């Protein structure tokens, strides 16, 4: 068993390395001339860093009060809200942009409202628009990751704090602050990295070439200039940004160390004051409105066309579901393998595993797709493998979030129960089955749900090479738009949203049910 | 449950294990082309009825894939090139002459290329909705002066239509193109990666006008029975856009590939173009255009740079654009 476990870990590391650095090397190898970076590229790098940093800080800063309110309050609809929070993150960018513009655009709800009140309409295009869109995408993710941290504080600690007569302020300092110190840096990191690879959203809401990111420059180098050297160099710069950010986050993060508990439902004391309740209610209502109104408009746009969707869209939906499930499974295996590896080897080595797990966000799907194509087209037909390749690449894209969700919990489990497990001689499968998996069920469910949903909505590498008889739902959505069928495209977007949310809900709920058992 | 998931996955990925005795013609096409809502299926059906072969599309990025595959390409035919990549594609020396009579084409410009054959065409145009824009600009110069209209365009660095706009502005304003972009900047709501995002923003009412094609109104008129979508026609002229097809020199199916090239300009192929591709046929069918197309507003003058001129203009024009809009 130990041998098999080690083998899986080695394979996971090899796969991640091959798909990230390997594909990049393949692209660089096919480059014809030494690349040159002009002022336009440097401007793109600057803009990328600024918008990603702002987006990450704002998303996390807003997520902390939302997560705290969700962690310490229960109200009807709370679990539905927590599920719906996953939705913005998994929307295809084009759908999300149109949804956001329906609220914040020139003729959006908000502008209409402001004009009715005699005020100026909102001007959304610019850096603030880019940041707004990225907060829309990532606030929910940040909220979920931080909520995960809150729920991981054992109930016994809050009980003890209450019996010691601690008020909300002291609970924050003694329990919540250390938890945030351990969770927030990783959370900032992932969101920063997601935003560095943003492209279509940044351009559309940035209001023009001011919103140029590195990823756009990579796309331009690939699709329009076919300058592989420049594409590889720009990708390397993205890697560099990622590596620096990952190491910085690792240095700042501190392990929580709350000690063991009995996995009880958290009960809270001393938070019943009117002021605190009103504050939490306001936070939840505002966040929900910010996230759910655009979603509601996406649903409203999609409903009229839903009857006109034909068999090709449903067939594509089936294929996308299959890709999503495979991708979720693979994400769990990869995430668990790497988290286990980082746990086993502490110190500097663990930081490298951490960086490896974050690496895949920094690689442009275009680089992975092109690199894979270069590596395999002489051996086999990449088009025939388009769907499995999509599933693997999607798993890689979800790995950083899955790792983020699982690694802290795994570390906690090993710190708290590890010695007990050792003394009982629990090893290999038994340890995984009886000690680790039951306690990891909640983050695993979340990770699998996220991976499945993300894969469902990803256009990904399949846009580079595909068989028209085996396309995915996001591809059909784009094809409908190209054929002017905007109403059907909106309906396909709704279908995609429902499938993604459905997958997320099933896995996430599955995880939570097991955790409660 | 676990097994059914795996079974579903395997089922979805399984290759159709049909015995294929017929020769296969592999056609590389852009992704929109092969979909149910593109021209691909009608062309496949029409050609298969006469060739006793199996036409298979492989969709995705055309030129990057060809450049990577080189001589080993699996393509017999490549369809859907834009004129902005033909120079690069020609220099691969992968393509053979099309063998069709260029003089028989019905294009607004003279076509002399013996490798890349146009199969449809149109012009770039700013499209608007008459319900929302009652007083459309009557010339490009007027569009620059107007400050009451918000337009959405595509990025010339990521989209063929965006690049066509760049060349259009260059053709109309010449050395003054940079200044023209500066004037237009106030009217540009935003720039998108591709045409779909822009058009979505237009149909959602976010933008007053969208960079699209002179033939776009035909879709709304014919498929949706909606006569309110129009293209603003400018006397300065509109940029000519065409999509091209070529056959691969090293194909294992030279006869089939040639038969496909011979099929392009036939009555049958060309008459599917208007309503399957929402553009104009490269060679006018005997029966003319479908009802509705004749009512479209068309410019009198087509502007066009050949691939060498366009290649020389691209970088300086892009620099001008970036400078004016940043």
Number of strands of chain B: 12
The helical percent of chain A reads over 70%
Major sheet size, sense and barrel closure of chain B = 12 strands, mixed
* C-alpha end-to-end distance of chain A: 27 Å
Q: What structural class results from the helix and strand content of chain B?
A: alpha/beta
The helix tally of chain A amounts to 20
Task: Please state roughly what percent of the residues of chain B sit in beta strands, choosing from under 5%, 5-15%, 15-25%, 25-35%, 35-45% or over 45%.
Answer: 15-25%
- The helical percent of chain B reads 25-40%
Q: Key features?
A:
heterodimer; A: 517 residues; mainly alpha; MetI-like fold; 2 domains; 20 helices; globular; B: 326 residues; alpha/beta; D-Maltodextrin-Binding Protein, domain 2; twelve-stranded mixed sheet; 13 helices; 12 strands; 21% strand; disordered N terminus
